[in-house]
Amino acid sequence: MINLLIITHEAVGEAYRSLTHHFFPTGMPENIRILGVEPDEDQNDIINNAIAALQEFPENHGVLIMTDIFGATPCNAARRLVRAGKSAILTGLNAPMMIKATQYSPMAEDLAAFTETVREAAVKGIFAITAEPEDLVCKQHAEAV
């Protein structure tokens, strides 16, 4: 099992908690912790809260820490928690990343491979759609435009 520690700005993590409940209605898996960072929170307090969360995890093959924005406070705190072979970070948290990580973390045993799998899910979940698909346009609304 790979554990997941989500460190985000304020309520962003809570939104991902709700998303996880949507896809996994049995509840938040035991191997996931979410920390929301408040604007006035001290960097050392964030790190201490993260360490406390890490200590609550069940036996594991590592921890994947996911943050929302590279270079922002949650990410900067998380970077101080990285230990080769024991913890890794992915930034740019998005819904495909969260779902893939939640779904596969209980069976994962190789932190580096799991981190790459989750990263690929995040990237593959991003599409640039710049034209309307002809077969899916609602004719009533299309004629009004």
From TrEMBL:
CDD domains named among the record's database cross-references: PTS_IIA_man
Location of this chain's protein in the cell: Cytoplasm
Coiled-coil segments: none
BP-aspect Gene Ontology terms: phosphoenolpyruvate-dependent sugar phosphotransferase system
Chain ranges passing through the membrane: none
The protein's Enzyme Commission number: 2.7.1.69
Keyword Endoplasmic reticulum attached: no
PROSITE patterns named in the record: PTS_EIIA_TYPE_4 (PS51096)
Cited InterPro entries: Bacterial_PTS_sugar_comp, PTS_EIIA_man-typ, PTS_EIIA_man-typ_sf, PTS_IIA_man
Pfam families: EIIA-man
Cellular compartments per GO CC: cytoplasm; membrane
Annotated ranges, domain PTS EIIA type-4: 1-126
Enzyme class: transferase
Alphabetic keyword roster: Cytoplasm, Kinase, Phosphotransferase system, Sugar transport, Transferase, Transport
Keyword Cytoplasm in record: yes
A GO MF term: kinase activity
Name used for this protein in its record: PTS family porter, IIA component
Source organism (scientific name): Neisseria macacae ATCC 33926
